[in-house]
Write a structure and sequence with these properties.
heterodimer, A: about 375 residues, alpha+beta, Neuraminidase, Type 1 dockerin domain, 5-stranded antiparallel beta sheet, 3 helices, 21 strands, B: Tachylectin-2, Chain A, 4-stranded antiparallel beta sheet, 2 helices
C-alpha cells in the first residue's frame, strides 16, 4: 500500500515538472531573435555608441555617443536613412541647445517625433543626473531649449534612460546605483504617468518585485502596443555581466509578468544593454560593449524579432500550421497569437493569419 | 435614378425628377456614419444643376469629382459630360465645367466614370437614336494631362444593342453598364433593361464578353444605372417600371423609379461543402501565388490576379460561416 502511494506521488511529481517546462518553454517560444548584426560605420566608431532609439517611421535613429565633434561629454546624435532598405548615413550631433558641455545621454524619441526624453548632468536639475525633455514644433523644426521634468519625477539621486509610451502617457525610467528610496535593488524600473499629454507627471511608481530584482534592472523601452517592456539586468541567470530581459502583460491594465531572459544569440557572455524595439516589433536595437565584430567600446547592434510560425514543428510553414491557427481561431492561444506584433495581441485573428501568410512555405532549418 | 456612393459611404448622389415631370436634377442624401439611415435628400445647388436635364452622376473613387451628363447650353452638341470638383470630402462642390473635347463631341455623351488612379475614363456616346449608345474610353498618362483621343470599346462589349451608363470599378478591372431604355436590348436579358458585366484580367488586357448576372439582380423590371462602391462590396442601381405596358412597381419598391443596392459576395466556400473552414483555407494555400480564379477573392470580390494575403483576409472574414443547405452532420 505504501509502495503504491510512492509510485503515485512520483507520477504526480513528474507530471508537475513536465508542465512547468512546457509552460516556460511556450512563453519563450512565441518569438525568437535572429543573429545580431553590427550597425557598422559610419554609425559605429571606436568611441562609445549607446542607447539607440528609433523613430516611428524607422528612418531616424537617435543615440548617445562620446565621439569627437560634439559639445562635450556624451551627446545625443542622430543618423538617418532615406528608406528602411537604405544604409544609415553619417551621424549628426543634435548640437546646442540640446547638447551641452555636460553629458546628454539615453535619448528616447516620442511616437510623434516631436519630443526627445533624455538624461543630463547639466545644471538646473534636482540631483546628480535628471530626466529632461526637448520638443520641436514639426519634424523639420529645430529642437527647443530642453526642460527639466521637475522634482516630482527627478529625485536627488540619478535617473537614467527614459522611455515614453506610444500614447505619451507613461514614462518608464530607471534609477542608478544610488537607488531612490522604495526600490528593490541597486537599480530599479519605475514609471510615472499623466492623464493627458498636457498634464503633470505623477509621483513615480516602482514596477515592483515581480519585475525588479535585488540587483541591477535598468534602461527600459516600451513596445508601441504597450504590452512588452524590455530592459537590461544582471540578475541571477544572466549569460553575461548584463543581459536583455523582457516582461509582458496581457493588456495595459494587467500587471507585468515575470521577466524572461531573451537568451542567445542576442545575450552573450559579454554585456548587452539599452534595448529598443521598432514600432512594428520586427527589429530589436541594443548596444553591446566590446562585442566581437564591433568597432570598439560600445556599439549599436540590431537583431530581427522572428515570430514562431511553424506551429507543428515539422520544419515547414504550410497549410497544416494554418489549420492549427483556424482550430484556435478567436481564442487567446499564445502559440498562434503571432500578430500584429511577434508577441501577439491576445486573440487569434486575421492579424495572425497575415503574419503566418508572410512566412508561408518557408523551410525552418 | 443613377445612384453613386462616395468613398466614405456617407454621400449618395442620384438624379431625381418629380413624378411625371421631366425636371431631372442631381440630388444627394447623406448620413453621419455608415450605420445610420440616409437623411432627407437635398437638391444640389445652381453651381451644379441647371434648368436643363442633369443626370446619371458618377463620383470618382477619391470622392473629389462628380461626373454627370447635362443638356444645358454651352456644350459641344447633344448631351455633354460635365464635372464638378472639390478639394476635400468636406469642401463644397465647385461650379460645374464642361469636360470639353476630346471626350465631348457633337454626338450625345452620357455620363463618365474614372478609375482610382484617374488615368482611364469610360463614357457612353451616341451618334444617332437609330445607332443607340456605345461605350467609349480614353486614357492619359498623368492626372494633369488632357485625355487622349477616345476610342470605342468595340466588340464584344459594344454590339448592335444600346450600351450605356458605364461604371468602372476602382481597380479598373470590372466594367458594369446597362442597356439603354430605348433599346435595342441585347439577347440573353431578363426583361426590360438589365445590368451587364464585362471583366479584364489586367488594365492592359482586352475586355471579355459581357455577361448577365441574372436574378436576383436582373428582373423583368428595368434594372439599370449600376454603380459600384470603391471597396467593391456593394452595387447600387436603379429600376423603373412601365405602367404604360401594364407593369406594376417592382416588389419592395416605393414608386416609379427607385434606388437599390445589392451586396457583391465573393464565393469563399471553395469545396462546396456549405461551410467556410480550414479546408477552404488549405485549398487557397495549395494555390498560393498562382492566378487561380477560384481562390482569387480579394481585395475586390473579383480578385487581383494573384492568390495572396489579400485573399486570405477575405476568407478569414467569412471563416466558420455556414451556407444554406449544409447537410446535418451525423
Amino acid at each position: 500500500m505504501k509502495r503504491l502511494n510512492d509510485d503515485r506521488m512520483r507520477f504526480v511529481l513528474v507530471g508537475f515538472v513536465a508542465t512547468i517546462v512546457l509552460v516556460s518553454g511556450r512563453a519563450k517560444a512565441d518569438f525568437t531573435f535572429g543573429e545580431p548584426m553590427n550597425l557598422v560605420s559610419p554609425v559605429n566608431s571606436a568611441h562609445a555608441e549607446y542607447a539607440p532609439s528609433l523613430s516611428v517611421d524607422g528612418l531616424s535613429l537617435y543615440f548617445e555617443s562620446n565621439r569627437p565633434g560634439g559639445e562635450g561629454g556624451h551627446d545625443i546624435w542622430v543618423t538617418t536613412r532615406e528608406t528602411k532598405d537604405d544604409e544609415w548615413g553619417t551621424p549628426v550631433n543634435l548640437g546646442a541647445p540640446v547638447n551641452s558641455s555636460d553629458h546628454e545621454a539615453g535619448p528616447n524619441i516620442s511616437a510623434d517625433g516631436l519630443s526627445i526624453y533624455f538624461l543630463s548632468t547639466r545644471p538646473g536639475g534636482s540631483g546628480v543626473q535628471d530626466l529632461w525633455m526637448t520638443t520641436r514644433e514639426t519634424v523639420d523644426s529645430p529642437w527647443n531649449e530642453p526642460v527639466n521634468l521637475g522634482p516630482t519625477v527627478n529625485s536627488p539621486f540619478a535617473e537614467i534612460r527614459p522611455a515614453i509610451s506610444a500614447d505619451g502617457l507613461s514614462l518608464y525610467f530607471s534609477d542608478h546605483i544610488d537607488a531612490r528610496p522604495g526600490g528593490y535593488g541597486r537599480a530599479d524600473l519605475w514609471v510615472t504617468m499623466r492623464e493627458t499629454v498636457d498634464a503633470l507627471w505623477s509621483e513615480p511608481v516602482n514596477l515592483g518585485p515581480i519585475v525588479n530584482s535585488s540587483r541591477f534592472d535598468a534602461r527600459p523601452c516600451i513596445s508601441s502596443d504597450g504590452l512588452m517592456l524590455l530592459f537590461d539586468s544582471n540578475r541571477d541567470g544572466s549569460y553575461g555581466r548584463l543581459d536583455l530581459y523582457i516582461t509582458k502583460r496581457a493588456s495595459s491594465s494587467d500587471p507585468w509578468g515575470t521577466p524572461v531572459n531573451i537568451g542567445p544569440p542576442v545575450n552573450s557572455p559579454i554585456q548587452e544593454e539599452c534595448p529598443s524595439i521598432s514600432r512594428d516589433g520586427s527589429t530589436l536595437y541594443f548596444c553591446s560593449l566590446d562585442r566581437p565584430g564591433g568597432y570598439g567600446d560600445y556599439d549599436l547592434w540590431q537583431a530581427k524579432v522572428i515570430p514562431i510560425v511553424d506551429f507543428n514543428d515539422d520544419r515547414i510553414v504550410d497549410a497544416e500550421d494554418m489549420c492549427i491557427m483556424v482550430d484556435n481561431w478567436g481564442t487567446d492561444n499564445s502559440l498562434c497569437d503571432i500578430g500584429p506584433m511577434p508577441w501577439g495581441d491576445g486573440i487569434v485573428d486575421v492579424q495572425d493569419l497575415i503574419v503566418l501568410s508572410e512566412h508561408l512555405f518557408e523551410e525552418v532549418p | 435614378m443613377g445612384p453613386t456612393i462616395s468613398v466614405d459611404g456617407l454621400e449618395l448622389y442620384f438624379e431625381f425628377s418629380p413624378a411625371h415631370q421631366n425636371l431631372w436634377n442631381l440630388w444627394v442624401a447623406t448620413r453621419p456614419n455608415q450605420q445610420d439611415d440616409w437623411g432627407e435628400p437635398v437638391i444640389l445647388g445652381p453651381e451644379i444643376n441647371s434648368s436643363s436635364e442633369d443626370g446619371l452622376p458618377q463620383i470618382s473613387p477619391d470622392g473629389l469629382e462628380l461626373y454627370f451628363y447635362s443638356k444645358r447650353p454651352g456644350g459641344y452638341g447633344g448631351c455633354d459630360i460635365w464635372v464638378t470638383r472639390r478639394s476635400t470630402l468636406s469642401d463644397p462642390w465647385g461650379a460645374a465645367v464642361n469636360l470639353g473635347p476630346p471626350i465631348n463631341s457633337s454626338a450625345h455623351e452620357g455620363t463618365a466614370t474614372i478609375t482610382s488612379d484617374g488615368l482611364e475614363i469610360f463614357f457612353s456616346r451616341s451618334y444617332s437614336a437609330a445607332a443607340g449608345f456605345d461605350l467609349w474610353s480614353a486614357r492619359r498618362t498623368t492626372r494633369d494631362e488632357p485625355w487622349g483621343t477616345p476610342s470605342s470599346l468595340g466588340s464584344p462589349v459594344n454590339s448592335s444593342a444600346s450600351e450605356t451608363a458605364p461604371c468602372i470599378s476602382a481597380d479598373g478591372l470590372v466594367l458594369l453598364f446597362s442597356s439603354h431604355p430605348d433599346g435595342p436590348y441585347p439577347p440573353g436579358g431578363y426583361g426590360g433593361t438589365d445590368i451587364w458585366i464585362t471583366q479584364r484580367r489586367t488594365r492592359n488586357d482586352p475586355w471579355g464578353a459581357p455577361w448577365n448576372p441574372g436574378p436576383p439582380l436582373n428582373t423583368p423590371y428595368w434594372d439599370n444605372c449600376p454603380s459600384i462602391s470603391v471597396d467593391g462590396r456593394w452595387l447600387y442601381f436603379s429600376d423603373w417600371h412601365r405602367s404604360s405596358i401594364g407593369q406594376s412597381p417592382k416588389p419592395g419598391g416605393f414608386g416609379i423609379r427607385d434606388l437599390w443596392k445589392a451586396p457583391i459576395l465573393p464565393i469563399v466556400d471553395f469545396n462546396g461543402d456549405r461551410i467556410v473552414d480550414a479546408e477552404d483555407m488549405c485549398i487557397m494555400v495549395d494555390h498560393w501565388g498562382t492566378d487561380n480564379s477560384l481562390c482569387d477573392i480579394g481585395p475586390m470580390p473579383w480578385g487581383d490576379g494573384v492568390v495572396d494575403v489579400e485573399d486570405l483576409i477575405v476568407l478569414a472574414e467569412h471563416l466558420f460561416e455556414e451556407l444554406p443547405g449544409r447537410p446535418i452532420q451525423p
